């Protein structure tokens, strides 16, 4: 099984999005952008990541890697370190309940059967894990089944940071681990997470096709279709703000200063770029010229 660190990248926003995105004016179809003007002596670059694709894919994107190499600062959603796996494990463990208590006997068995079919693992091994992590585990296993990655492949977010460290670049995380976990886990009750897990399990065929389509749309840079797919995830306005909009606004407090200091390469989940509350629109409102760039 892939490490829990690998699963964490899925959680950081390709799997979780918002119906509110589709109600906003669409930005152009691209996941790679140049940011210029508004006092910048040199352009910076914004790259929307897909957390289930890795270093092998990124290395094939010549324009992306050229701009990465020419940047002095590399920015991610958060900085990864050797403690991340243990932190993730700790955060995913439920208190005072278990999966077989949250789910009906029938739903537990349906989930267990599918997980066994996909991975060979027994759901009882993950009985104390919160439902969202089980959902991520299943989705990640689907990704590996249909789009197998080499054994040495690394999640692209981690790869950018490892290369930045090797090349002596400045590295900045836009939020802390606790801030991200509060947004992505703690705002959802265990019951809410269990309902979302069963939405996935009870629509297995759709889940499989979604993984295939998501990979295709991402390769095409088709942000519109990615947004459209994600509208199936039904979140309240408050949940949407915590998951996406509030984080984007907080990030915008940091990005101008970083870009003014030196050319910056910003790598965050692709769906943070979309809509009128996405980073592309927010950067434009702040006075920057933001235009799509070919990845190859």
Automatic annotation (TrEMBL):
The name this protein goes by in its record: TraB family protein
Organism: Chryseolinea serpens
Signal peptide: 1-22
UniProtKB keywords: Signal
Residue runs in coiled coils: none
Presence of the UniProt keyword Signal in the record: yes
InterPro entries: TraB/PrgY/GumN_fam, YbaP-like
Statement: the UniProt record of this protein carries the keyword Signal: yes
Taxonomic superkingdom: Bacteria
């Amino acid at each position: 099984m892939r490490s829990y660190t690998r699963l964490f990248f899925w959680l950081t926003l390709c799997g979780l999005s918002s119906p509110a995105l589709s109600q906003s004016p669409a930005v152009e179809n691209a996941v790679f952008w140049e940011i210029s003007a508004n006092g910048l002596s040199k352009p910076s670059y914004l790259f929307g990541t897909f957390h289930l694709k890795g270093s092998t894919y990124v290395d094939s994107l010549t324009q992306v890697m050229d701009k990465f190499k020419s940047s002095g600062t590399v920015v991610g959603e958060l900085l990864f370190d050797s403690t991340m796996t243990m932190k993730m494990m700790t955060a995913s463990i439920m208190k005072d309940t278990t999966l077989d208590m949250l789910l009906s006997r029938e739903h537990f068995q349906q989930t267990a059967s599918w997980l066994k079919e996909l991975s060979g693992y027994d759901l009882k091994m993950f009985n104390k894990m919160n439902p969202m992590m089980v959902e991520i585990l299943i989705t990640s296993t689907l990704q590996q089944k249909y789009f197998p990655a080499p054994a040495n492949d690394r999640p692209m977010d981690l790869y950018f940071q490892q290369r930045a460290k090797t090349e002596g670049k400045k590295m900045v995380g836009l939020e802390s681990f606790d801030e991200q976990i509060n947004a992505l886990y703690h705002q959802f009750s265990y019951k809410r997470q269990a309902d979302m897990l069963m939405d996935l399990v009870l629509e297995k065929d759709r889940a499989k096709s979604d993984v295939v389509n998501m990979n295709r749309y991402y390769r095409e840079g088709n942000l519109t279709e990615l947004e459209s797919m994600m509208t199936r995830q039904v979140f309240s306005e408050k949940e949407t703000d915590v998951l996406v909009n509030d984080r984007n606004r907080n990030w915008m407090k940091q990005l101008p200063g970083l870009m003014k200091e030196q050319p910056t390469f910003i790598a965050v989940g692709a769906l943070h770029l979309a809509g009128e509350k996405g980073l592309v629109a927010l950067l434009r409102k702040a006075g920057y010229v933001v235009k799509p760039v070919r990845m190859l």
